[in-house]
Write a structure and sequence with these properties.
mainly alpha; about 55 residues; 3 helices
Length: about 55
């Protein structure tokens, strides 16, 4: 877990300090989404089970 956290932090730092890398990531994201964008597979009525986080 620590190694994964370090890798994610290093990636985030690289993106924040390199505008070209950020632009490339955004372009790749737009390309992967396509013209349709993102549509959640869940209906809007679905709500998270809040009782679970309260220990009940």
């Amino acid at each position: 877990m620590v190694q994964a956290a370090k890798a994610m932090a290093a990636t985030g730092a690289a993106v924040l300090t390199d505008p070209a890398l950020l632009a490339a990531a955004k372009a790749d994201h737009r390309k992967r989404l396509g013209k349709g964008g993102y549509t959640s597979p869940l209906s809007p009525e679905v709500q998270p089970p809040l009782r679970m986080s309260l220990g009940g």
